[in-house]
Amino acid sequence: MNYDCAIIGGGPAGLNAALVLGRARRKVIVLDNSQPRNAVTYASHGFITRDGVTPAEFRRIAYEEVLRYPSAAHHSGQVTDVRRTGNEFSIGTEDGLSFTARKLLIATGLREIMPDIPGLNEHYGRSLFNCPYCDGWELRDQPLIVLSDQPGVFHMAKILYNWSKDLIVATGGADVLTKEQRELLASRNIRIIEQPVTAFIGSEGKLQQVEFADGTRLGRTGGFIAPRLQPKAAFQTQLGYEVTETGGIATNEMGKSSVPGVYAAGDASYVMPSQLIYAAAQGSKAAMAINMELTEEEFAL
């Protein structure tokens, strides 16, 4: 099965790219393992006309719109192998199928590496989140915890202060705050706790208390975690594209990578900020660039 473009990843970047390419009458296939990172949450926010939509409903609507176009196709399965063969790409899946395409768009998103803390998984996506712009409104004016051992914890605390003035910053003892930052947080009555968090305690996903290594328990009804983020794309060895300092696929502003014919969009390229609307916009731009490249090649024949 030969396509103008194969898209690996069925998130907002990949699906929006498929929509644009389908409308451009390009033969496109979306290869999707149906494991979106945002599946743990009940609702996605910040996307105009879809604010509050569940991840499952977002995908349902997106596929319904994409597959209206006869040149667009979808295959549900994990991509296990991607190789360049001449002027085309050969893509293999875990179920033994293979596809070829003139262009390749990688939109596989991110993988979250969470701290190993009892109770975190039960509350994540319900009262513990990682993006203030996605879920800050829902936790407004509540007593919150900001948990991070990364330098960005100061920035996150400042951002969250707009939604809640009752904040605790927990760094787990990591030396990630400067003296000036500590003073600024203290001036806003934001308490810094160096003790590691040892448990999140609550019921049915609703956080009630946070326990620290010294046995202290503090009442909190929500919070924000900064997980380690890694791109899911694992095709650098096969394709040889350049990556950024954060591990994303290095691209130009239109999503073109260092390898001819290979594009990337969404979290697979820029890593942060991780937003539906950002990813969808990236997918749209990359699709236009892919269509233009295909057009130029056809006119050069």
From TrEMBL:
Its cofactor is FAD. InterPro entries: FAD/NAD-bd_sf, FAD/NAD-binding_dom, Ferredoxin-NADP_redctase_2. Keywords: Flavoprotein, Oxidoreductase. The keyword Flavoprotein applies. Pfam families: Pyr_redox_2 (PF07992). Gene3D superfamilies: FAD/NAD(P)-binding domain. One of its GO terms (molecular function) is oxidoreductase activity. Residues 3-283 form the FAD/NAD(P)-binding domain. This is Pyridine nucleotide-disulfide oxidoreductase. The keyword Flavoprotein applies. Homodimer.
